[in-house]
């Protein structure tokens, strides 16, 4: 079973790993609490959360999603845009086996601490346009652009999750994981 963490602990972890300044960490803290109050952007309900209100706790498996959304919020601050991206990611994790496998592989690589060359994983977000109404999220070894895309955002998922995992191990101890899967040992 995955441990659960307070929103503040999750945001502090994300900021420690990914924030560029103390001001950005403070902005992320405000955003996180606004998102929770609005019931938007953050993953909610089982298996992502336990409890409600100020006592709500987030599963370790939800931390990568939260981190990606906080990082993306540096470029796209509108809550409705971030909420739509969040829903697209969560929906694809459940309903799209290829996306889920790629996301899981990126999480697994981040947790493996392998020091040799690692595969890259990218999250590509296609914005709504005349061809498709909603956000399209893709995960792959390279940015994945469709001929229908007119505007995209691409994130190096492997770097993001590796930094996040490294910071999580420092903050919560060596047994920290995003999933209940045991970590692979180090290889040199």
In words, what does this structure look like?
- The protein is of the alpha+beta class and about 190 residues long.
- It has one domain (about 5-170).
- The protein is built from six helices and six strands.
- It has helices at about 5-20, 20-40, 65-70, 80-95, 95-110, 155-170; strands spanning about 5, 50, 55-60, 120-125, 135-140, 150-155.
- Strand 2 and strand 3 (about 55-60) form a beta hairpin.
- Helix 1 (about 5-20) crosses helix 3 (about 65-70), helix 1 (about 5-20) crosses helix 6 (about 155-170) and helix 5 packs across helix 6 (about 155-170).
- It starts with a strand and ends in a 16-residue tail after the last helix.
Question: Summary?
Answer:
The protein has 188 residues and is of the alpha+beta class. It is built from six helices and six strands; from the N terminus they run βααββαααβββα.
Q: Unreliable segments (pLDDT under 50, ≥5 consecutive)?
A: 181-188
Strand content: 5-15%
Q: Report the mean per-residue pLDDT as an integer.
A: 90
Q: Number of domains in the coordinates?
A: 1
H-E string: EHHEEHHHEEEH
Q: If helices are DSSP runs of H or I spanning 4 or more residues, what is the number of helices?
A: 6
Outline: globular
Let me know the number of strands: 6
CA radius of gyration:
16 Å
Strand order of the largest sheet: 1-3-2
How many angstroms separate the termini? Answer: 30 Å
């Amino acid at each position: 079973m995955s441990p659960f963490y307070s929103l503040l602990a999750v945001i502090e972890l994300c900021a420690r790993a990914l924030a560029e300044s103390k001001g950005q960490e403070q902005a992320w803290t405000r955003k996180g609490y606004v998102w929770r109050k609005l019931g938007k952007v953050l993953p909610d309900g089982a298996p992502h959360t336990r409890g409600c209100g100020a006592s709500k706790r987030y599963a370790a498996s939800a931390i990568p999603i939260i981190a990606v959304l906080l990082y993306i919020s540096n470029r796209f601050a509108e809550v409705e845009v971030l909420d739509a991206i969040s829903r697209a990611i969560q929906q694809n994790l459940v309903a799209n086996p290829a996306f889920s496998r790629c996301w899981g592989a990126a999480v697994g690589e981040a947790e493996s601490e392998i020091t040799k060359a690692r595969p890259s994983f990218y999250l590509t977000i296609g914005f709504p346009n005349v061809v498709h109404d909603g956000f399209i999220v893709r995960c792959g070894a390279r940015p994945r652009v469709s001929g229908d895309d007119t505007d995209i955002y691409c994130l190096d998922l492997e770097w993001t999750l590796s930094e996040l995992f490294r910071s999580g191990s420092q903050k919560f101890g060596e047994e920290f994981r995003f999933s209940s899967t045991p970590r692979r040992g180090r290889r040199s």
